[in-house]
Specification:
By secondary structure, the chain is mostly beta strands. 6% of the residues lie in helices and 39% in strands.
């Protein structure tokens, strides 16, 4: 017996208009989404000249932003693939730009990004940003390129990085020395493909967990990796706090990066997914066309 129910007709009736499917813009911009998540600091890296870095958001109580770029760094970058609507990222303005860190051992990094003065720690926090790289070569130890790093002098450190295989990772070491690793979490897939990827990391000593998310994590169709965070000696940043470099030039990041934000709290999986999805255009939206319309989207007959 064939059903005659309304459910078997894929019809949409909207009083006063015709309902159709079409491409639409992002519901909210990436900047709006990150800002709504109350970061401690957020830098957009939209400078067009080397020198001082301006923060988009500063929610710190004591920190002083004094970030600077090296004179040979590439700023104001817009080349394809672009982190703009033209590149498929509807949550960014067409004039968005970014930094490129051109070469290993060149000394190109963002120095003294800020001094959190006790606000960022190895105990609890989050970081997110965008990366684009093709390198898989960090020829000398420690064979990785550091992205964001917060540390206590030259000993304990928390940092995100791209390793020599192109995988994204998060590592946390003990205050007594970097040889004692408390957490080391890495993606299962390499992301040095020359495309833009959203990367985020969270660490929570109290719950013994460190997590990395790539392209919004599993909630957004990307990758989520959960790792163990072993209890160690806690520390807060009192010295280097930088982007694009670890303790020495052997750990310089090579590639492009944009939209760095840091938190003194743990981002949820949904918040990370929301960041990523805010950068993309909506796959479809409902548009009103005309008056008094009826959209017949098709019908399926069910026996």
């Amino acid at each position: 017996m064939k059903s005659r129910g309304v459910r078997q007709l894929k019809m949409a009736l909207l009083a006063g208009g015709l309902l159709v499917f079409g491409a639409g813009p992002a519901l909210a911009s990436y900047v709006t989404e990150v800002t709504s998540q109350n970061p401690l600091f957020y830098w957009r890296f939209n400078e067009t000249a080397t020198g001082a870095i301006t923060e988009q958001i500063d929610n710190s109580g004591t920190a002083v932003n004094s970030g600077t770029t090296a004179a040979t760094m590439l700023v104001g970058q817009t080349s394809a693939p672009a982190l703009t609507p033209a590149g498929g990222f509807g949550g960014f303005e067409s004039g968005n730009s970014w930094f490129t860190f051109p070469a290993v051992n060149s000394g190109d990094f963002v120095a003294n990004l800020t001094n959190p003065k006790g606000e960022m720690s190895s105990t609890l926090g989050s970081v997110s940003n965008w990366i684009k790289t093709t390198t898989g070569t960090y020829p000398t130890a420690p064979t990785y390129g550091t992205l964001y790093r917060v540390d206590q002098g030259a000993t304990g450190a928390m940092y995100t990085f791209i390793d020599t295989t192109g995988k994204f990772g998060l590592r946390i070491t003990n205050l007594s020395g970097e040889a004692t690793v408390l957490a080391d979490v890495r993606s299962s897939v390499a992301y040095n493909d020359g495309q833009w990827h959203h990367v985020a990391a969270t660490w929570d000593e109290a719950n013994s967990v460190a997590v990395i998310y790539i392209d919004g994590g599993s909630l957004a169709g990307g990758e989520t990796v959960v790792g163990v965070f072993t209890d160690g000696t806690d520390y807060v940043s009192s010295n280097r706090h930088q982007f694009g470099k670890g303790t020495n030039n052997a750990s310089l990041y090579q590639g492009s990066a944009d939209e760095l934000a840091i938190w003194t709290s743990v981002l949820t999986a949904q918040q990370v997914a929301d960041q990523y999805q805010a950068a993309l255009p909506e796959p479809a939206s409902l548009l009103l066309l005309g008056l008094g319309g009826l959209a017949l989207l098709g019908r399926r007959r069910v026996a």
